[in-house]
Amino acid sequence: MNIFGILAGEMTDLLNFIKPIQLQLVALAFMLVLEFMYFHRRRLPILSTRTFIGILIFSLVFIIADTSVILVSKLHLPRNWGMRLASQIRLYAYLNFSLCQYLYISFLQGRQQHIKVIDGIKIFSIYAFGVLSIISVNFLTKNEQQGLFAYDVINLINNIISLFYASMTLIESRIFYKKNPDSFFRGKRRYIYWNLAVWIVIVIIQILQSKTTISSIGIASMCFLMYMGLETPGNYIDHDTEAMNLTALRLILQDYINHKKVFFILNIDIEDYGSIEEQFGESIATTLVSKVSEFVLKSFTYPVFHVAPNSITLIVPNNKRLEHNFYVDLIIKRLKERLEQSWFVGENSFYLSSHCDFIVYPDDLNTQISIHEFISLINDWHFYSKDLGFIRQANPELVKNRKRHNKIVKLVREAIDNDGIEMYYQPIYELQTKKFTNFEALVRLKDNKTYGYISPEEFIPLAEKHGLIMRLSDRIFNQVFDFVATHDLSSKGINHMEVNLSGLQSVDAALPEQMTQLLRKYDLNPNIVNLEITESIAITSSFMLKKNMDELKKIGCTFSMDDFGTGYSNLSQMAKVDYELIKIDKSLLWPCFDKNNPVQANAKIILDNMITMILNLGKKIVVEGVETKEQLDYLEKMGVTYIQGFYFSKPLPAADYLKFLEEHN
Question: Measuring CA to CA, how many Å separate 535 from each of 261, 485, 530, 532, 642?
Fold first, then answer.
C-alpha cells in the first residue's frame, strides 16, 4: 500500500471523525477568535460588561460540552459517567447563558437599579427548576435508540426555560422602549431585537427538532451580534488619546448612578489649549492632551476619558475600606506634581496652565440629574466655578448657578420664539454739537417674573454657548432697524445707531449679506449703522472678523471697539483694524475720580495718555459710564468726542427714548 493510500485513509478517518461535530468546531473556532478580540482590548468596568463576560464564558463551556456529548454519542465511547457529566455541564452552561442574556440586556438598558424581589423570585424559581433537571440526569436511564442526546426530556425542559427567558427579555424590552423613548440605547435596540430573534428561533428549532445540533452555532451567532452591536471595545476608545470616549462615559455614569454608587470625578482642564492650538496648530495641541492622557492611564487604574478637546476626565469609585480623602488626595497630588512640569512635543517644551475640577457624586449634585446634564456639567464646570487654584470642587452655590443658567437659556429660547425680546436705547451725547446724535441699542428679556432683570452680560454668553445667538441677533437687528426706519430717527438728529456684534456673529461668513438684506428691507442708509466689537473678539477672531469688516465698510457701515481697556488691552489691534470709534470702558474712568483710590493719580495719567494716543491716531472716542459733572468737564477738556452714561440718561424703552429726543434735541 503506497503512502498516498495511507494518507487518503487517514484523511477519510479524520473527516469521519469531524463530520458529526463540524458545526461545533466552527462555533468553537469562532468563539475563540471573538474572545481573543474582546479580552485583548480595554473594557468598561460596568455591570453589563461583567455580565457579557459571563455570556462569553458560558457560551464557550456550552460549545465544548455540546461537542463532547456528540462525540460520546456518535463514536461509541464509554457512555455512562462521561455522557452524564458532559450533559450536565452542557445543560448548566446553557441555563446560565440564558440567565446572563436576560440580565445583560436588563442591565444594559438600566431597567433594574437592583434586582427587585419579584424579579429575584422569578429568576430563582426558574433557575432552581433548571438545576434540578440537571441533577436528575444522574437518576435517569439513557435510551440507546433515542438519538444524539440521551436525555431529550431534560433538554426539552431547559429549552423551554431558555425560551421563557428570551420571551421575557423581548417583552420587557418593548415595554421599556415605549416608556423611555429617549433612552441612550434606543439607537441600539435593533441589535438587541436581532439577538433576541436569533435566540428565540434557535430554541424553537431545538424544541421542535430535538435531534438537530445547531445550538452551538446559534449561540456563537448571538455572541457575535452582541459584540458587533453592543460590546465592541473599539467603539468606546478615543483613538487620539487611547482614553475612553463620550459613549463610554455615558454608559459608566448610567451604570454607577443606576446602582447608587458613590464616586468621584476629576476633570483635568487644560486652560491654555486654545492659545496653543492657535499658535502651534491643532496637531501640537492634540498631542499635548494625548501625553496628559497617557500619563493618567499609566499612573492610575481607574477609568480615564477624553470627552472635550481640552480635558481628560478620571472617575474614581469610592473604596469603602479607605477614607476617600486618602486616595483621592494622593491622586490629586500626583496630578498636580506632573502637570506643573514641562511636556515635550518634538523639540518644543510646554508648561501647561491647568486646573482640576472635583465632583463628589451624589454629595455635590442632585441625584435626579440626567446623564446629558451630568456630562455637560463635567465639561463646563470651569464656566460656573469661581474658585482659583488647582482644585475647584463643586459646591451648592455652583449647582445653584448652573440651575439658574439652564433656566435663563430656556427663557432666552422662549423669548426668541414668542417675541419676548425688548430693546432699550441709551442716548450718546456729542460734545461738539451739544446734541444726542447717537444711541446704543441694548437687549433685554421681557420676563421679569422668574429672576427679574437679567444682564445681557449673563444671557448673551449663554445664548452663544447653546447655539441661540444667531436667532437672537436676527431678532435684535430686525427690531432695531424697524424702530429707526419707522420713526425716521435720522430726521431727529440721529447719525449712528450702535449695535453689539456677538463673537459668533462677527465671524459668520453670512454677516455681510445678512446686513445688506436688512438695510434694503428697512430702506436705511448704511452710514447710520455702527457695529460694536469687543476687544477680546477682535484679538481671538482677527482674520474672519477683518474680512467681514472690510466687506461691510464697502457698503458704508462703521465699527467701534467696545470695552477698550478691559481684559486684553492689546493696543496693536487699533493699528491692525480700522475702527472709527474707540469706546473706553468705565473701569478706566471711575478710578480717576475715586478719592479713596490710593493710585488715583496713576489711573489719571493712564487715562490721559490713552485718550491723547487715540485722538492722535485720528479716532473718535466714546467714554462709557459717565455719571458726574466733574467727569463730563474733564472729558470735554481732554477732547473726547462722545459721552455715554447715567449723567444724561439710563437705557430707555423705545417710547421713552423718543420722548427724550423730542425734549433734548
Answer: 47, 30, 15, 10, 19
